[in-house]
Amino acid sequence: MRTIQYPPFLQPGDKITIISPAGKIDKSFLKGAKRVLESWGFRVTLGKHAGGESGRFSGSVKQRTDDLQMAMDDEETKAILCSRGGYGAIHLIDKIDFTKFRNNPKWLLGYSDVTLLHELFQHNDYASIHSPMARHLSVEQENDPCSLYLRDMLFGKLPSYTSPKHKLNIPGTSNGILRGGNLSVIYGLRGTPYDFPADGSILFIEDIGERPYHIDRMMNNLKLGGVLEKLSGLIVGQFTEYEEDLSIGKEVYEMIADMVKPFGYPVCFDFPVGHVIDNVPLICGSRSELTVGIKGAELKFK
Asked: Is the pTM of this model over 0.90?
């Protein structure tokens, strides 16, 4: 198993660059995120096209690629916050050069469509943070727990998380490399060089606006492709903004539970990650321990 490297954690006064590698964003959210990050003691700059617009995207493929590449190459930048997801990061994934980044690695932050970039970073052996983005930082209260978890994480103070018991949880303890993010994005990378290595992974998944039978199709792809059986644990996050469709015979969580039950590893349902306010930051590529017991579940970074 290849070693995943942590970029250096940040110090007060370090520089964070905000970019928009996918969808366009309301500029007020960029200003709000900048204000919050500065209140934490960081210097903040915006990518040239962070507030741009080109159809549904923040810029052309070249503009978005250039912003990400410049942030990655910048020796002063210590973390890169992706302002939002949406759709579009897939256009960048095969155009990024890690040559200069390897001399000055930095944390990539974001979730949803940014799952693509997390997979790219892990493909190049670097950890990154699946985290809230600009809108969350802008609109939530200054004492918002997920924002504060992110602040602490950037400074190197790593949390452990607990999740309440759920009737479908499968008990046990496992250790592995934490990987995952948006299920649709993970599914879209199957069969490409950026598909994650399943062996020994603790996979976390979430999604938004997907019909239950689409989720069933994607999970069956992971099953038939031999992914599910190779995991050491599974964390099922929030599946939101869809209409329950009992014509498939089961609710979404029940369908997932029945699919993974034969494999015997611990499974945690209803974990606080996804397109919700309670979206805790997770270190993709971290060595982690998942414990699922009678009273609930706990996730620790090692």
From this structure: yes
Domain assignment of residue 222, given as a range: 160-301
> How many CB atoms sit inside 10 A of residue 103's CB?
9
Q: Among 14, 6, 29, 155, which Cα is nearest to 85's?
A: 29
Kindly list the distances between the CA atom of residue 124 and the CA atoms of 6, 7, 142, 223, 254, in Å, as whole numbers in the listed order. Answer: 12, 12, 34, 26, 35
The string of pLDDT tens digits covering residues 195-229 is: 999 999 999 999 999 999 999 999 999 999 999 99
**Tokens standing for residue 93:** 């994934």
Render pLDDT for 125-141 as a digit per residue (tens, 0 to 9): 999 999 999 999 999 99
Q: Which of 54, 175, 155, 72 is nearest to 117 (CA)?
A: 72
Domain at 194, CATH number:
3.50.30.60
The answer on 63 and 37 residing in a single domain is: yes
